[in-house]
């Protein structure tokens, strides 16, 4: 009888100890889960205001979804427009075992896509994801890549050229020959502008070194200059502005920051908002969704932006209706 009681007491003690250990294990696991730090690698193609705004938005988008402070560690690399660095930096971010990768601009996203087929990748501001061979379908990307596309509202930009500068007959398109993103935009602009009766001249540059001489040739043959969402042109935009100013001819860029820097006007998608959307999409994946199951989000509705100082310098009169709806940057 005494042995049975002893066994019962020992069994009860074992149950209590096991329960205590289990509770402590769950408690520790819960605590660790609450303080778990996720690792995110970000590769930006080049430094300029538009891409910097996207990165700022990405961080805020992640923060809005609960990823800030010790909840996240971001490894940020900038290739500064060097394609060889894009490749080595992409491999670095993969080797550092980041759980998710974000590519800001098409070359950065392409570099990351070449470096891994396993780690999820979010594109930040890629105008033509299908043309850049990053996804096969916008609605069903598949694979390990999804993201945000900044579809340039080209038709609206052409209408703006007509409204602001009705005397323009020939438009020169300045873009980088090395960016797939830019080629597709130039093709679309040329097709739509020619339908509207414009003569279109295209000028591709292999690098920033050729921009000054190309602008001299271009400006002798056109009435206005249009630039797509192009990282090479954006990084050397002051050179474009200086040449156009000397020739007293307007520039119509595709980014609001470039209007501020000396462009006349544009219809643009907000770069910061693009970044926020990119950050929120990254958070969905960190919370368990598969990148390939998330449709690419397309931003294609723009807002008119006008540089009033440049308009005054060029003698351009801003129609009253346009002035009411447009955002002024200077």
UniProtKB/TrEMBL annotation:
Coiled coil, from the record: none
The superkingdom listed in its UniProt entry is Bacteria
**What would be one Pfam family of this protein?**
ABC_sub_bind
Under Gene3D superfamilies, the record lists:
3.40.50.2300
InterPro entries attached here? Answer: ABC_SBP_TrpX-like (IPR047776), ABC_transpt-TYRBP-like (IPR007487), Peripla_BP_I (IPR028082)
What's the protein here called? Answer: ABC transporter substrate-binding protein
């Amino acid at each position: 009888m005494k042995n049975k009681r002893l066994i019962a007491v020992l069994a009860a003690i074992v149950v209590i100890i096991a329960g205590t250990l289990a509770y402590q294990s769950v408690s520790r696991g819960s605590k660790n889960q609450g303080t778990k730090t996720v690792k995110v690698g970000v590769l930006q193609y080049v430094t300029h205001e538009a891409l910097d705004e996207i990165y700022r938005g990405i961080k805020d988008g992640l923060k809005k979804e609960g990823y800030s402070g010790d909840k996240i560690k971001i490894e940020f690399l900038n290739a500064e427009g060097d394609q060889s660095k894009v490749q080595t930096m992409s491999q670095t971010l993969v080797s550092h075992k980041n759980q998710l990768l974000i590519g800001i601009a098409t070359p950065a996203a392409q570099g990351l896509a070449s470096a891994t087929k396993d780690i999820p990748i979010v594109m930040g501001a890629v105008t033509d994801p299908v043309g850049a061979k990053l996804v096969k379908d916008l609605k069903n990307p598949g694979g390990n890549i999804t993201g945000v596309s900044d579809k340039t509202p080209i038709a609206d930009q052409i209408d703006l050229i007509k409204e602001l500068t009705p005397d323009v007959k020939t438009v020169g398109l300045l873009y980088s020959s090395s960016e797939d993103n830019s080629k597709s935009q130039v093709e679309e602009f040329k097709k739509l502008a020619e339908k509207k009766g414009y003569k279109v001249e295209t000028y591709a540059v292999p690098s920033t070194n050729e921009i000054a001489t190309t602008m001299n040739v271009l400006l002798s043959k056109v009435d206005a200059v249009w630039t797509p969402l192009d990282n090479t042109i954006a990084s050397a935009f002051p050179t474009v502005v200086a040449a156009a100013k000397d020739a007293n001819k307007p520039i119509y860029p595709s980014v609001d920051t470039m209007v501020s820097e000396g462009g006349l006007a544009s219809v643009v998608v907000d770069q910061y908002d693009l970044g926020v959307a990119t950050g929120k999409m990254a958070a969905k994946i960190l919370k368990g969704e598969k990148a390939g199951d998330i449709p690419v989000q397309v931003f294609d509705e723009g807002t008119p932006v006008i540089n009033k100082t440049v308009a005054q310098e060029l003698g351009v009169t801003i129609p009253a209706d346009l002035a009411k709806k447009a955002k002024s940057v200077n």
